[in-house]
Specification:
The chain is an alpha/beta fold and 631 residues long. It contains 28 helices and 12 strands. The strands form 2 sheets. The chain has an 8-stranded parallel β-barrel, surrounded by 7 helices. A 4-stranded antiparallel sheet has the order 9-10-11-12, with helices on one face. Strand 3, helix 10 and strand 4 form a beta-alpha-beta unit. The two termini are 33 Å apart. Bound molecules: 3-hydroxypyruvic acid and zinc ion. The site of 3-hydroxypyruvic acid has 11 residues, from helix 6.
Length: 631
């Protein structure tokens, strides 16, 4: 666009200008041909076909049959659900209604945490969209669908090249009856650091408008000071503030008294006083054992008046037993996933829980046959994402030792592999726990869990033990995330930082004690709009501004991708990841009612300049694109 402005300039057109620079730079006049949508898409497909996905090299596209989709009568009205209760009675009314229910209610996490934990968050909007309406029709009695937030936000842009806001708007349209729930990392929003207060408020307002009803808010150090602004923002938007405490340690272990029952009782009271409509218990690693669950929920039921919502991960294999005891103690809602996306690092299975509670008056009010059918769909599409499975094959009780959150296990394993520690993974797991203890036994959940992971990798990689840190710490360059944690940039841990380690890590830098958000300059949205207008060369939405403010580079990379290839969220998932097989023909609906038929005819030889020509037919017409072979 800049060059075109030059040629259109009147002085340029009149020829009265100094031409030396231009004369010496003929490349200024070589304009990239504006590619049409079809050619852009073919370039993407050719690139995936030859180069594979995420630098994995070309892989054979799996042959996957069409997923089974449950039969539903689309002409019938969609039954009403909790969304209508919220809209009619407001958040307090909804909370009151919830407490009156005899049966336990269910939040289904299949659209968010289940795939975040099992498939590295890679499930695409296209596959969610297909099953959203059947889910709403078949499971209208759910408490909520957790379908946004956590890692889904940045992974959507970063790895799936799609817009998370569009996901929210699209699913909301398909699913008008059940509450939509998101996971919000308080002042870390959907990122890994603290953001300015006005950005958090803007994020909450715009995501409320776009369709989120329940905000599960947590702070990665259980620091209530860091959660208040977010809770207030949710309340101001008349949505449900599910303020959550992260469960760590073991209340049954008297040798580890830091996080005892009293700690959680006090925290629950603080969260209720801060304005929570619902108390969330976020057992992100799956450490809450059955008897502990019974005691925790029983005592919290006495401590607070608001309903209680329990979230766990089934990593140890004890999830259903934990839920059964929590339900006996009176928990109001629990998180489950569709059977074929449940278990291991994901949530316990909805189907298993249903059968486990047969004969109990608290058995959830769900249609188990519907759940089985929805499970078929997920079982089929899970095949698309095989490359992202963690490799964990069986219940993993070591989690009670290392305490790594469900979503972090496979991530840290990847990180370890990337720095050449694949065969020292056992050491990394042990070190993770040792670092936790050195840090004063802290809550480990995004982003504090990442800091513990970074430090563990740093120590294993450099063959350091605890003594080395205290003895040689002055001369060690600790990972940035560790320095920032000890500076107080993620907030304050319960009972403070261990002072000697803090001194060693900070090397004279002053820590802060106030809320990081107070010290950060507010985002200047007016200025940002201007800047983005020039960068994007199109109208700028509030969504663009928020995303850019949260993740400038990730957002701009996504923008560049769409400039280069167009909107690739329209491709079916196997084609999106693997490209096409020789001779294969696919249909792509690029917009409603407009379908392109693509056939991969042949792939040319690699040229000396590292390119290949890939030959297609597009709606029967021959087309070719040239791409770089990166293999
Ligand atoms: C997230 O913050 O993404 C989590 O799921 C933490 O458990
Ligand atoms: Zn979780």
């Amino acid at each position: 666009p800049f060059l075109e402005n030059v040629i259109q300039h009147s002085q340029f057109q009149s020829g009265v200008y100094n031409t030396t620079f231009i004369d010496r730079s003929p490349e200024l006049f070589v304009f990239p041909k504006r590619k049409d949508r079809g050619t852009k898409m073919l370039s993407y497909i050719a690139d995936r076909t030859v180069n594979g996905f995420e630098g994995k090299g070309s892989r054979k596209k799996p042959t996957i049959p069409k997923p089974r989709i449950p039969q539903v009568k689309y002409s019938n009205e969609i039954p009403g659900g909790t969304k209508q209760i919220l809209d009619e009675r407001g958040p307090e009314g909804l909370a009151k209604w919830l407490k009156e229910q005899k049966e336990v209610l269910l939040t289904d996490t299949t659209f968010r945490d289940a795939h975040q934990s099992l498939l590295a968050t890679r499930v695409r909007t296209k596959d969610l969209k297909t099953i959203a309406e059947p889910t709403s029709r078949l499971l209208p009695d759910l408490f909520s669908l957790e379908m946004w937030g956590g890692a889904t936000f940045d992974v959507a842009y970063r790895f799936l090249n799609e817009d998370p806001w569009e996901r929210l708007l699209t699913l909301r349209q398909k699913s008008p009856n059940v509450l939509f729930q998101m996971l919000l990392r308080a002042s870390n929003a959907v990122g890994y650091k603290n953001y300015p207060d006005n950005l958090i408020r803007e994020f909450v307002e715009k995501s409320s408008n776009a369709g989120i009803d329940v905000f599960r808010i947590f702070d990665s150090l259980n620091w209530v000071e860091g959660m208040k602004l977010t809770i207030d923002a949710v309340r101001e938007n008349n949505k449900i503030a599910e303020a959550s405490m992260c469960y760590t340690g073991d209340i049954m272990d008297s040798s580890r008294p830091k996080y005892d029952l009293k700690y959680y009782q006090n925290l629950a009271k603080e969260l209720q006083d801060a304005g929570a409509h619902i108390l969330g218990i976020k057992d992100m690693a799956g450490l809450l054992k059955p008897e502990a669950a019974y005691q925790l929920i029983s005592s919290l039921k006495e401590t607070v008046d608001i309903p209680i919502h329990l979230h766990t991960h089934d990593t140890s294999g004890n999830g259903i037993f934990t839920y059964a005891r929590a339900i006996e103690a009176g928990v109001d809602v629990v998180d489950v996933a569709t059977g074929s996306m449940a278990g291991l690092t994901s949530q316990p299975s909805a189907n298993s829980l249903y059968y486990a509670l047969e004969g109990s008056e608290r058995k959830p009010n769900v249609d188990i046959e519907a759940y089985e059918q929805l499970g078929h769909y997920w079982e089929d599409i899970r095949e698309y994402y095989t490359d992202f499975e963690s490799g964990m094959m069986a219940p993993h009780t070591e989690v009670y030792h290392h305490e790594m959150p469900g979503g972090q296990y496979s991530n840290l394993q990847q990180q370890a592999r990337a720095v050449g520690l694949a065969d020292r993974w056992d050491e990394v797991k042990h070190m993770y726990r040792r670092v936790n203890d050195m840090f004063g036994d802290i809550v480990k959940v995004t982003p504090s869990s990442k800091v513990v992971g970074d430090m563990a990798l740093f120590m294993v990689q450099n063959d350091l033990n605890e003594d080395d840190i205290y003895e040689k710490g002055e001369s060690l360059a600790f990972p940035d995330s560790v320095v920032e944690l000890f500076q107080g940039y993620l907030g304050q841990p319960y009972e403070g930082f261990p002072s000697e380690l803090q001194r060693i890590v900070l090397k004279g830098r002053q820590p802060i004690n106030e809320r990081p958000g107070e010290l950060l300059d507010p985002v200047d949205f007016k200025d940002l709009k201007e800047t983005l207008f020039h960068k994007l060369d199109r109208q700028v939405t509030s969504f663009d501004m928020i995303s850019h403010a949260l993740y400038p580079k990730v957002f701009m990379d996504y923008h560049k991708f769409t400039e280069q290839y167009g909107d690739m969220s329209v491709l079916d998932t196997p084609t999106f990841f693997y490209g096409m097989r020789l001779g294969e023909e696919i249909e792509v609906e690029i917009e409603q009612g407009k379908t392109l038929i693509v056939k991969l005819v042949s792939i040319g030889e690699a040229q000396v300049d590292g390119t290949r020509t890939v030959y297609f037919e597009l709606n029967g017409q021959p087309r070719e694109v040239v791409i770089k072979d990166l293999n």
